[in-house]
Specification:
The chain has one domain (about 5-80): Arc Repressor Mutant, subunit A (Orthogonal Bundle). The termini are far apart. Strands 1-2 form a two-stranded antiparallel ribbon. The radius of gyration is 13 Å and the shape is globular. Helix content is about 60%, strand content about 5%. By secondary structure, the protein is mainly α.
């Protein structure tokens, strides 16, 4: 995990939201429902995160209902973003 990975995620509200929601494996449809974003935005965000090695498809052979999860690298980035967010909240009090 590098700071470039963290920066890549937080530059996009969609990517940041997806990373935050993938604490457990999920389908794009489930992410769409939870995040109230279009399936096109979710799919694009997942592709971008997958290309960066932060998300992996657990069911690549399936056409419908693919399941995505964070990689080890993605979990580290998610944790770092979470700690940055909690640090900002604590300093604003």
């Amino acid at each position: 995990m590098s700071w470039e990975d963290v920066s890549f995620v937080i530059r996009s509200k969609t990517r940041k939201s997806i990373i935050a929601q993938l604490h457990a494996p999920k389908t794009p449809t489930l992410l769409t429902r939870e995040l109230h974003l279009s399936i096109a935005n979710i799919s694009r965000g997942l592709r971008e995160l997958q290309s960066a090695g932060l998300v992996e498809c657990l069911t690549p052979e399936v056409r419908v209902g693919k399941i995505f999860a964070l990689t080890g690298k993605g979990k580290k980035v998610s944790s770092k973003i979470g700690s940055m967010t909690s640090d900002q909240k604590a300093s604003s009090r």
